[in-house]
Amino acid sequence: MPKHALLSASSSDRWIHCPPSARLSETYEDKGSDYAAEGTDAHSLCEYKLRKALGMEADDPTEHLSWFNQEMDDHATGYAAYVLEQVEAAKETCSDPVVLIEQRVDFSRWVEEGFGTADCIVIADGTLQIIDFKYGLGVLVSAEENPQMMCYALGALELFDDIYDIDAVRMTIYQPRRDNLSTYVLSKEDLYRWADEVLKPAADLAFAGDGNFLCGEWCGFCKAKNACRARAAANLELARYDFKLPPLLTDEDVEDILGKVDALVAWASDIKDYALQQAISGKVWSGWKLVEGRSNRKYVNDAAVAAAVTEAGFDPYEQKLLGVTAMQKLLGKARFEEVLAGLIEKPQGKPTLVPESDKRPAMNNAKSDFSEK
């Protein structure tokens, strides 16, 4: 069986929406990224800390982690503490809950060759809980109707549904760098219904390479996103507005564009990156050339520069107050609150236009402020 499943749980949001993308992505090399490498290190640290917290044997991976730092250590410690809280809560209804760490699960009853690895599974009478650690900072991940989590839950049910009397499935995303703790609960019956009516039909199409291409937010991690014609066609639909300025557009036009403009910007950026990498590899684009970009001067050796400037009679360093986050790490949370009480403020954020689905409360605008007076 391949190391990475064609229809993996982690990519399920994409191939459920766009089934043919699974086979198309097979033709592209998996180059990895620094973000993925950092996430792998963070998961290794989480696994170690959780095993130790549960009294299991575990080897400390720290010295082998390329991306290890204090922030990663703190977040891994927080993750282990959160899981322990869930285990203690499970003991209230089950004297001996089962805790599985980095558990391989198989959901091939619905997805051909479907398997994955769940970060943590807590099984107790009545409830099956899946906890997934996300170290990423860029994309806020929600547990609500999250197909990756639902695939993991199906695989866990395959293992334990006959052993434990499970009625509900609880799925949690633990994303500490975004202060995001997202939980979604659904009944076992609803999960099986989704698997039969949504997951399996999409998986059958994806495995066969059939179905229709569909552009959406799931394109972000698709290997074929730079050269995908369906994505290009979807984004170029905006060309029908002839790039008119807002006063020449109707309200409906503006609302339509707002729903697509972020995807358009991301697609344009991906095209530029793709063209650049191709040019570096030797591709010649008609009307374009590869040149050396601007760069800034930098010191060859910081210590030597500091020594030379000091010897010349000058102070080479500037004194700067630590930022709020760095200061809290220096003092510790409790001491930070004690020492700096009344000296910290959080200014109102800059107005930002977001979809109605965003969980932040709407702020007053000039019209509503006037009407309240």
Break the fold down into its secondary structure elements and pairings:
Layout: H1 12-17, H2 21-26, H3 34-53, H4 70-90, E1 98-106, E2 115-124, E3 126-133, H5 147-160, E4 166-175, E5 180-187, H6 188-208, H7 229-236, H8 251-258, H9 261-280, H10 302-311, H11 324-331, H12 333-339, H13 366-372
Parallel strand pairs: 3-4
Antiparallel strand pairs: 1-2, 2-3, 4-5
Question: Which key features would you list for this structure?
Answer:
42% helix, alpha+beta, Lambda Exonuclease, Chain A, 373 residues, five-stranded mixed beta sheet, globular, single chain, 13 helices
Task: Give a nutshell description of this structure.
With 373 residues, the protein is of the alpha+beta class.
Structural class: alpha+beta
The oligomeric state is single chain
Instruction: Quote the average pLDDT.
Output: 86
Q: What summary fits the major beta sheet?
A: 5 strands, mixed
Topology pattern, helix = H, strand = E: HHHHEEEHEEHHHHHHHH
Q: Which shape, going by the Cα principal axes? A: globular
Total of DSSP H or I helical runs spanning 4+ residues: 13
Q: Which CATH C-level class of the domain at 12-208 is it?
A: Alpha Beta
The assigned CATH architecture of the domain at 12-208 is: Alpha-Beta Complex
Helix percentage range: 40-55%
Question: How many β-strand runs?
Answer: 5
Order of strands across the main sheet = 1-2-3-4-5
How far from one another are the termini? 68 Å
**How much of the residues is beta strand, in percent?**
5-15%
Point out poorly predicted stretches: none
CATH-defined topology of the domain at 12-208:
Lambda Exonuclease, Chain A
Tell me the radius of gyration: 25 Å
